[in-house]
């Protein structure tokens, strides 16, 4: 399903209206597939789908709501009648010191990232299995492997996604579904741009600690997602592939 896929090959992407999700969708369409952009911001998803052309369509989803998730995948089952790849890219960040973080701030991030990934994966399972070559790619992060001050909710969520990925990979292998995760470093997306503008993210320190010395472009992460989503990685499952410019292996402490 790499270079030889056609429009009948369908990818569903949560958080598909912008950032990494949209970049992954664009790569899929570029390589000949069709895509369903699933997003809470339906207007933004519709604009993105128009830019991608007739191979894309937009659909509302609230990954924090089980009924919304079920309705979205019932719609896909009715219209596309298949899913070959699922990208769980929906997410938020609500940084706060752990001593001051409210239960709502912690729980909302966990609900969208972890519960959302689980809800969506469950809803897509039968269609992915029917494909005979289904692939789920979850978005983890460098936060899954590091203790990031002020981000207890986010680091807990991304660590949980890595664990969920491993368990689903083992359970669903017999159903012809591979499940992997990508661990991006810092990527220049509209999401991170807002944090930078708010003073909640300082680019200088991140660039200095990253061996490649820069943020990633969304397209660079999309290329990794595409590899895991297609048969180019047909014997890879349960894996967390770090795409972080070397950030998590930086050992220059001297």
Written overview of the protein:
It comes from Glutamicibacter uratoxydans. Belongs to the short-chain dehydrogenases/reductases (SDR) family. One of its GO terms (biological process) is fatty acid elongation. The longest helix is centred in the middle third of the chain and has 29 residues. The chain has a seven-stranded parallel β-sheet with strand order 3-2-1-4-5-6-7, sandwiched between helices. β4, α4 and β5 form a beta-alpha-beta unit. The chain has a single domain, classed as NAD(P)-binding Rossmann-like Domain (Rossmann fold, 3-Layer(aba) Sandwich), CATH 3.40.50. With 254 residues, the chain is α/β, with parallel strands linked by helices. The protein is globular. It is 45% helix and 15% strand.
């Amino acid at each position: 399903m790499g270079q030889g896929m056609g429009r009948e090959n369908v990818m569903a992407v949560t958080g598909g209206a912008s950032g990494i999700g949209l970049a992954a969708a664009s790569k899929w369409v570029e390589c000949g597939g069709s895509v369903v952009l699933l997003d809470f911001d339906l207007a933004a998803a519709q604009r993105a789908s128009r830019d991608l052309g007739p191979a894309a369509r937009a659909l509302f989803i609230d990954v924090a709501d089980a009924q919304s998730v079920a309705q979205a995948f019932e719609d896909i089952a009715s219209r596309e009648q298949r899913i070959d790849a699922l990208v769980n890219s929906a997410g938020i960040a609500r940084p706060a010191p752990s001593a001051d973080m409210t239960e709502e701030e912690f729980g909302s991030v966990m609900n969208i990232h972890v519960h959302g990934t689980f809800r969506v994966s469950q809803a897509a399972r039968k269609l992915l299995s029917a494909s005979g070559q289904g692939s789920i790619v979850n978005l983890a992060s460098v936060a899954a492997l590091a203790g990031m001050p002020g981000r207890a909710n986010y680091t807990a969520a991304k660590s949980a996604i890595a664990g969920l990925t491993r368990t689903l990979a083992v359970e669903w292998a017999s159903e012809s579904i591979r499940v992997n995760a990508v661990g991006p470093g810092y990527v220049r997306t509209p999401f991170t741009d807002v944090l930078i503008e708010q003073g909640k993210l300082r680019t200088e320190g991140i660039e200095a600690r990253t061996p490649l010395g820069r943020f990633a472009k969304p397209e660079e992460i999309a290329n990794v997602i595409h590899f895991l989503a297609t048969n180019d990685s047909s014997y890879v499952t349960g894996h967390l592939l770090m795409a972080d410019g070397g950030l998590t292996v930086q050992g220059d402490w001297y």
